[in-house]
Amino acid sequence: MIEVELAAVQIDQRSATPVMLLKESQPPGRTLAVYIGRTEAQAIVDSVQGIEPPRPMTHDLMRDVVEALGAIVVKVVITELVDATFYAQVELKIQQKVVVVSARPSDAVALAVRVAAPMFVASEVMALEGFVVSLESDDPASAEDENPEKLVVEFRDFLEHINPEDFS
Q: Would the N or C end of the chain have less CB density within 10 A of its end CB?
């Protein structure tokens, strides 16, 4: 297993789909791109930015249920890639018992960022799908595109202009 950190949540310019970027904590620093839904992307971004909704959202409910049961989130792991779909698991510890629950990667990460749980990617998945991102560029426009604040503003603007017809 390879420990990763949430590097960014941004919009893929080609597909207009949110993508979660998980970066390897140690060299070589490979990145795993996981396409996720808009709602999950917003939940992750809001949590990272410390935005508290007036009422609990789904991932806040998950956190609250885990805590109410006296459990802790030990870690989340992206375990495999099958037919272009990533799978994940949330490992919980309840008293002395370890419980593993299947989850979508976006839900697992949304929970992990809320409880500061470590995140991992299976070595095989990172070997197949991981890539190294070069931040060096001679093109100043590409460096501007890497600005996380700009990406968040663009994502929020994107979410504000979604129509129900976009999903039909």
A: C
